[in-house]
Inverse folding.
């Protein structure tokens, strides 16, 4: 329902459910596309679930603090409205947004302007990656790792116990 394209470094974002990256998020009704500095917004492999609102809020605030007010005040950012109707993914993508630019379907800028916008948002992404390189910890990351570990352990099959009886040696 909401097509997207992700721009990332695998070292910092090995999957769309991990880390920070740039995305092009297409409005479900075809009204335009958002270029966003965004982050993982879902968890799970088969049934995608939105992250907990408190974790999302902490991560957005953390990232905005890292990129700084100068970056956040430099452009005319837009609030994401993907107008999804079939799923809540659009709402999840909007909730995890740090900074977004909107290209209306009838007013798409030329390639040079889009590349300029990508390069600008990459500066914010680079700030986040540098913070992580310097020991920064993404809020909720430890808790998610712990939750995933417990989930994985529950899936592990324990070896079946042997019903063999011990031989009695006299």
């Amino acid at each position: 329902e909401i097509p997207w394209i992700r721009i990332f470094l695998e070292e910092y974002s090995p999957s769309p459910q991990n880390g920070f990256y740039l995305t092009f998020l297409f409005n479900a009704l075809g009204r335009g596309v958002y270029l966003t500095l965004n982050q993982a917004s879902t968890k799970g492999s088969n049934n995608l679930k939105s992250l907990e609102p408190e974790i999302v809020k902490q991560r957005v605030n953390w990232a905005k603090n890292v990129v700084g007010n100068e970056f956040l005040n430099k452009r005319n950012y837009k609030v994401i409205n993907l107008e999804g109707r079939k799923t809540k993914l659009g709402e999840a993508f909007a909730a995890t947004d740090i900074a977004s630019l909107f290209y209306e379907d009838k007013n798409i800028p030329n390639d040079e302007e889009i590349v300029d916008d990508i390069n600008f948002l990459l500066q914010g992404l680079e700030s986040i990656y540098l913070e992580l390189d310097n020991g920064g910890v993404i809020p909720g990351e430890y808790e998610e790792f712990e939750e995933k570990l417990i989930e994985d352990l529950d899936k592990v099959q324990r070896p079946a116990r042997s019903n063999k009886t011990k031989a009695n040696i006299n």
User: Anything to note?
Assistant: The longest helix spans residues 111-133. The longest strand covers residues 32-39.
